[in-house]
Design goal:
mainly alpha, 4 helices
């Protein structure tokens, strides 16, 4: 049974049979901000722009929610201090509660639209990625497929099996 390493304790091998296995060196490639949009086409930009806009609306609504909550607490505090009579208290509390309900309904609608737009944006980009990868596979020579060590032969069998079914 292997013990988990703990802070301040050595993690040296416990058994003389433990041998360090050398790992192959892998070149690390630094990603850039531009790489996030590698599969974005020009016709995806309006959908993405609408998604950013609805995200900004949701952020603004959350800020408004905090302000409305503060207004409600202000009314409760003034009532507790004896500055408002019960009729004024109920009137002001009802007003701010109504605004809170309207804000909640609008946040629900805009958040739903926001989520749908982001899912649509992701699906469009995934489709573009699939199309580009499939196109690159179609342009490869047969020698390239034959030189692969693993996976390609079974991939080709799967493509040959499913392609006629998908095309019909």
């Amino acid at each position: 049974m292997t013990a988990l390493p703990m802070r301040g304790f050595s993690t040296a091998p416990q058994d003389s049979r433990d041998v360090a296995i050398p790992m192959p060196q892998v070149e690390v490639i630094q990603s850039s901000f531009r790489d996030l949009f590698a599969f974005t086409r020009r016709h995806h930009v309006p959908v993405m722009g609408c998604a950013f806009f609805t995200a900004a609306l949701v952020a603004g609504a959350r800020t408004t929610y905090a302000v409305l909550t503060g207004k409600i607490f202000d009314v409760v505090t003034r009532f507790g201090a004896g500055l408002l009579n019960p009729e004024q208290f109920m009137s002001e509390l009802s007003k701010w509660a109504g605004y809170m309900c309207l804000l909640g309904l609008s946040m629900w609608a805009v958040s739903s639209i926001d989520m749908s737009l982001w899912v649509l944006t992701g699906e469009l980009r995934a489709r573009t990625a699939r199309e580009r990868i499939f196109t690159s596979f179609l342009h490869k020579s047969m020698a390239w497929y034959d030189s692969r060590d693993s996976g390609m032969s079974s991939l080709m069998v799967g493509i040959q099996t499913w392609a006629p079914l998908l095309c019909s």
